[in-house]
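**Backbone geometry record:**
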Amino acid sequence: MATTNLQFLQNPFPRPTFSSKYLVMRAPKMVFKCGCSSSSSVGGDAFSLTSSSKCDVDYLGESTKGDLNINLKHLENFGLDGQATLEGPIEQVARLEAEEAGSLLRDLGIPSPSAARLSPRGIFCTRTLNLRSISAIGYDMDYTLIHYNVMAWEGRAYDYCMENLKSMGFPVEGLAFDPDLVIRGLVIDKEKGNLVKADRFGYVKRAMHGTKMLSTRAVSEMYGRELVDLRKESQWEFLNTLFSVSEAVAYMQMVDRLDDGVIPADLGPLDYKGLYKAVGKALFRAHVEGQLKSEIMSKPELFVEPDPELPLALLDQKEAGKKLLLITNSDYHYTDKMMQHSFNRFLPNDMGWRDLFDMVIVSARKPEFFQMSHPLYEVVTGEGLMRPCFKTHTGGLYSGGSAQMVENSLNIHGDEILYVGDHIYTDVSQSKVHLRWRTALICRELEEEYRALIHSRGPRATVVELINQKEVVGDLFNQLRLALQRRTEGRPAQTLAATNMDDQELTESMQKLLIVMQRLDEKIAPLLEADGELFNKRWGFLSRAGLWDKSHLMRQIEKYADIYTSRVSNFLNYTPFMYFRSQEQTLAHDTYSHYCSEHNGSSTN
């Protein structure tokens, strides 16, 4: 059936009228019905869906798969030939349609995508993503579909870790879990016993030894000639996820004990790297021995923060024709318990959490799941009994396997799959690097950071104003200094006015300017130090390193995550057909725009 991508017809739909119970859309010439039950036909004769075999790419390079088209034959039935003209230039028509659309969204009480972006629960785009072209969406579980109370979950993980360290002979008396000691995106220096925050280039901006913050001078002396390189795994350990919090807190506290010389000698000669291994071993025991997860399974309400909107967001995606996958490293019993607790009570029509997913894979062993092939087992009983299998089927529950098995089973590959997780490396980086899946990062802390940034606008504006003042004063000081240098060498200054200044006037002007700059430094330094303390007093903002630069974490997010947001339920503020468009990236030489405005758009040769 012939199709066209016409976006506007003659006599576009008028504004809807409202009754007390129903919203009625009146279209005098045509009535379009839209349903999404078929992959080949949508809305009966009115529309067709662009298939994988007939898709193209749009002007932004995104696949047009999943786009709706108007069937020309259907238009002919209404006396239209498919070459319908618009009443006026497209720019004018589009402007009017956009105004009408915005007004209608407000009347319906539906936030527009642009409004949703301007909120702590927005979905932020680093690389353009057309959700219509996505055929399958895979989800991680822990801290993605299930959000834990960090103080409760990580606090108990810390407690078990400390109990294991105590049984190994380490002195842990008097220590308590302090989640504010660390934030996601920091890097442990296992050679020096430090925790550092680096900028996007790897330069260390803040550092803590044990639980004591280091001065700016100490940081410069220690890391002035060294960059954080995450490829050097023997030295650096990146805190990818909230699961890293308990381990990092325990390690930094034990560094203090090692420095104090209170760790028994019979534990052997320990350096900071050996101490990190010991803490990691103690925490690993807490997970492997099962006590921690057994406690959480027995009282999930104490550890899980429910999100009633989340199952509904997934339901929208499923009903839009997306195949939903759950791919988690957690075992079957834990996964089933957590998902039942978090999903079943919020689903309609007696649905269970399993009904949402076309495939469930537990004990996936990510990141190896994305890198190589492991044996696949089918979970065949409620008790978790498994049998080997070589082929998956819709609605199946499996253990192990590989991402390539998933692709082959669904006949969906590469950028037709979106994977959503909270771990920069295990979930986002590896699925993109090895399979070219599209990726979404979940980072719950974004909501708190967004609010903290809003409340920090005043102090940040003050700092920027002071820095700009110093820059102007400094420019004059430097020009006078150069004039003095040239005068000393018997050469004229840059300008006649500077050359004609007498020696005393030149010296006194420089002295005054220098005092002003020194006083400004005294004012600016503590303000910069306090920047971000509304988010974390030690480390500042999650996404920033310094006043203007991005943190190393933000660089990883931009590199590997196509979109990022605070929680999966934020998809509910959009639609399963959303076209996420990345924003303009500011460059250092973008000052040309100011030059053009100041020179009335004129150009120079």
Summary: The longest helix spans residues 457-488. Residues 287 and 293 are 7 Å apart (CA to CA). The chain has 19 helices and 23 strands.
